[in-house]
Design goal:
This protein is an alpha/beta fold. It contains 6 helices and 5 strands. 40% of the residues are buried.
């Protein structure tokens, strides 16, 4: 397994349900302002929707090498995380602070971060996304463990 290095040559896939819509929109702007390409997989309004309809397309883009990483947002972060982790090669991590976002990359080679919009302020979500994208997988003893997943 090679260490995933996030590159801005491929887009970041992003998706959310209605509870995460506003965070997704603001994160999308933050990412594009920072020079990232963003593939927005929905949702596109505050209307009630089903989170798997947006988690699966994000996970598919990462799984197929069409996106360098993914960001998913829903109310608790759990639903999108469970849906994304059904995909081969996806290691989606539910994070609620920047230390967890960093460890998800360093120790678990996570390739999708899942953010609980109802439980973290936006400033925390923004910091987590930045830390997640800037942190490299350490490999070493962690690589053996990730391979067992």
């Amino acid at each position: 397994m090679s260490s995933l290095t996030f590159s801005n040559k491929l887009p970041i896939a992003i998706g959310a349900d209605h509870a995460g819509f506003e965070y997704k929109e603001t994160l999308k702007k933050m990412l594009t302002d920072a020079g990232w390409q963003v593939a927005d997989k929905g949702c596109y309004s505050l209307d009630s929707v089903d989170y798997p309809d947006f988690a699966h397309p994000v996970a598919e883009m990462v799984e197929n090498g069409q996106a360098t990483a993914g960001i998913l947002v829903c109310g608790s972060g759990n639903g999108v995380c469970m849906a994304a982790n059904k995909h081969k090669g996806i290691r989606a991590a539910l994070c609620w602070n920047d230390e967890l976002a960093s460890l998800a990359r360093q120790h678990n080679n996570a390739n999708i971060i899942c953010i609980p919009a109802r439980f973290v302020p936006f400033e925390t979500a923004e910091k987590m996304a930045n830390v997640f994208l800037a942190t490299a997988f350490e490999g070493g003893r962690h690589e053996r463990r990730v391979e067992k997943i």
